[in-house]
Amino acid sequence: MPCPFPGMDPFLEIDPIFRELHIQMLAAAQAQLQPQLRPRYVARLERHLSEGGVWELEVGAGSLEGKEPDLVIAGGTPRERAKASTAILARPSASCTEELSQEELALRKQRRIVIYVRAKPRIAVATIELLSPSNKERGTVGQARYLEKRASALRSGTHWIEIDLLRAGERPFVPVHPTAPADYEAYVAQATPSGWNHLAYGWGLRDALPSLAIPLLGRDQAILDLGAAFLKVYDVIAADDEAAYDGDPPGPPLSDADRAWADALLREKGLRG
Predict the structure, then answer these.
(1) Cα four-point dihedral sign 221, 227, 232, 236
(2) What confidence tens digit (pLDDT) does each residue in 17-42 have?
(3) How far apart are CA 210 and CA 89, in angstroms?
(4) CB under 8 Å to 86, separation ≥6 — which residues?
(5) Do 243 and 272 contact (CB within 8 A), yes or no?
(6) How do 159-164 and 120-130 pair as beta strands?
(7) Is 37 left (phi over 0), alpha (psi -120 to 50) or beta?
(8) Cα 205 vs. chain centroid, distance in angstroms?
(9) pLDDT (0 to 100) of residue 12
(10) What span, in angstroms and rounded, lies between the C-alpha atoms of 38 and 43?
């Protein structure tokens, strides 16, 4: 059956169903992005990387084993621009720029992230991460490893896209936040030759999941339609079989208004008596 909610389903924000959602969302994102990326770029899931950066083409060294990103986009030999999507892009609700010192820029150029595909080095351009519960739990090994992974990518000058589909937990620190409180957020750190553009996106329980612009090299970009990916995954994992729609969703508790709205919606869909 189709998802009863217009965007994220709060009843899925709990393991083990969220763990399955996490895996399948990344696979759906890869499948959606790949036709836009080829032949200039390629998206790979959880590949082992070696350190480097985006703005130089020399291959670097140094292990990042154990810090694999969820989904990485790597560039190959340029042939044509990535194909554009017709999805309507979400606009960031807040943004800021960051200029790096000459010393920091020099350090960035000395580091490289390379993906080895059949002995061919690929330069990593963008990393997409979907937060898991352990990433948002202070003091856990999962959070520590996640922050190390993010720091390694940012030091290298790789675009970083972080998507949070969990209301619970403490979001890892980012330089910019949505201007209004949001149930769900996305953060994009777009590397520039002189620093960063930090972009924040936020949306509520009643909103559709947005489409995000994924920065690549130069003016190239791909479009990730989170809503389309989620609707596909909802069916793939048979989410309605796991969701306990007859009770309350996992915490934090919904506001009185959202709880009444969700109750009316589920009754309208025939999921509550």
Answers:
(1) positive
(2) 999 999 999 999 999 999 988 888 88
(3) 7
(4) none
(5) no
(6) parallel
(7) alpha
(8) 18
(9) 97
(10) 9
CA neighbor of 124 nearest in space, from 132, 113, 134, 116: 113
Amino acid identity for residue 77 in this structure: T
Q: Cis omega before residue 78 (within 30°)?
A: no
3-state helix, strand, coil in the chain (%, to 5): 30, 25, 45
Residue ranges of the chain whose pLDDT lies below 50: 50-67, 77-86, 109-119
- Give the separation between CA 190 and CA 143, rounded to whole angstroms: 22
ω into 252 cis (within 30 of 0): yes
* pLDDT of amino acid 100: 74
User: 188 is written with which tokens?
Assistant: 């994009």
The C-alpha angle 151, 180, 26, rounded to 5 degrees, equals 45
Residue type, 196: W
pTM over 0.85: no
Read off the tokens for 261. Answer: 């709205």
Which ranges of the chain does DSSP label H, i.e. alpha helix? 17-37, 102-109, 141-156, 226-236, 239-242, 256-268
Tell me the C-alpha distance between 166 and 184, whole Å: 7
Assess contact for 64 and 48: CB atoms under 8 A.
yes
**Dihedral through CA 263, CA 267, CA 270, CA 272, nearest 10?**
60
Handedness of CA 125, 131, 135, 136 (dihedral sign): positive
Tell me, what's the pLDDT at 115? 32
The 10s digit of each residue's pLDDT in 115-135 is 333 345 667 788 888 998 988
